[in-house]
Amino acid sequence: MDHPIFIALDFATADLARQFLKKFEHVQPKPAIKIGMELFYATGPDFVRELRQAGFTIFLDLKLYDIPNTVAQAVRTITRLDVQYLTLHAMGGAKMLEAAVAAKQNSDLKLLAVTQLTSLTEVEMQSTQSTTLTMTQSVKHLAELAYQQGIDGTISSALEATPILQVTAPEFLRITPGIRLAGDSADDQKRITTPSQARELAASGLVIGRSITKAQDPVTAYMRAKKEWSE
Ligand SMILES: O=c1ccn([C@@H]2O[C@H](COP(=O)(O)O)[C@@H](O)[C@H]2O)c(=O)[nH]1
User: Where is the active site (predicted)?
Assistant: First the structure.
């Protein structure tokens, strides 16, 4: 899958996620899905296996952030789940990233490093992290660090996708949440773009949650995003 749109399955139970996915049973190819903390903590690895067996491409968004040994052991365990993408925080540092890359061994699992959460403004980032770096400088720095350790791509706003490309390589993935369809109302996401803006800014994949999951007609919202993204 070259340019995926991952639907963020942010649901509280497996049944709610199943009901949602049922609406997509006639959509081919199957949408790629992202399982984050809410659903994973509620349902655990068994539900990940169920969705994988049903043929979904799975992005497990657990945002690992711990000492190198702990993260490496977690990556080793997760490779057995046969998910295709996994997140960890770039802020864990070079040694943590390096340990995660070593732990995935020969598996096809792609590791994605979260740079700065899309819910943060530049001012919030600067005050929390006690830095004078701009958002772009900080994201570029973390992306370059991840790239040098052999990580497969980043998670950032699409607003930083072009700067990330400048310090990494075209094949390094630039996956971007914080995507909203025109007309959506404001929420906790701060660094947002539409799918077509993300494409113009050199994102290589999108994560979309509420614009699809909370839409009156989720399949139509997904198709609209897909059309904008691929045009
Ligand atoms: O910086 C980040 C990292 C991860 N996310 C995750 O993506 C989805 C976005 O959902 P929306 O409903 O489209 O806002 C969500 O699961 C986040 O945990 C992110 O938004 N930003």
Answer: 61 (for ompdecase activity), 63 (for ompdecase activity), 63 (proton donor), 66 (for ompdecase activity)
As for the ipTM of the complex, it is 0.99
Residue 228 tokens, joined:
């904008």
Rounded to an integer, the average pLDDT of 163-182 is 98
Concatenating the DSSP letter of every residue in 72-103 gives: HHHHHHHHTTT-SEEEEEGGG-HHHHHHHHHH
Q: Is residue 176 very low, low, confident or very high in pLDDT (cuts 50, 70, 90)? A: very high
Pocket test for ligand 1, best of 117, 155, 207, 211 (most atoms within 8 A of CB): 207
pTM score, whole prediction? 0.98
Any residues with CB less than 8 A from the CB of 2 and at least 6 apart, and which? none
CATH number at residue 171: 3.20.20.70
Segments forming the whole domain that contains residue 168: 5-230
Number of structural domains found in the chain: 1
How far apart are the C-alpha atoms of 57 and 32, rounded to whole Å? Answer: 5
To the question of whether residue 190 is assigned a binding role by annotation, the answer is no
